[in-house]
Amino acid sequence: MDILTGTHEIQVEVITLKGRLDALEARGLRDLFDAHLAGGRNRIVVDLQALDFVDSAGLAALVKGMKECRASGGDLRLVAPTTKDAMRVFELTRFDRVFNMAADPETALAGWS
Amino acid sequence: MNPPTTLTLDADFLSLRQIGPWLHTVLPSEDGEPNPAHGSIELAIHELATNSIDHANPDDGKLHLTAHINDSELQIELRDRGDFCEVEAIPVPDPENPQVRGYGMMIIEQLASSLTYERIDDLNVWTATFPTT
Question: Where does B5-131 sit in CATH, by number?
Answer without folding.
Answer: 3.30.565.10
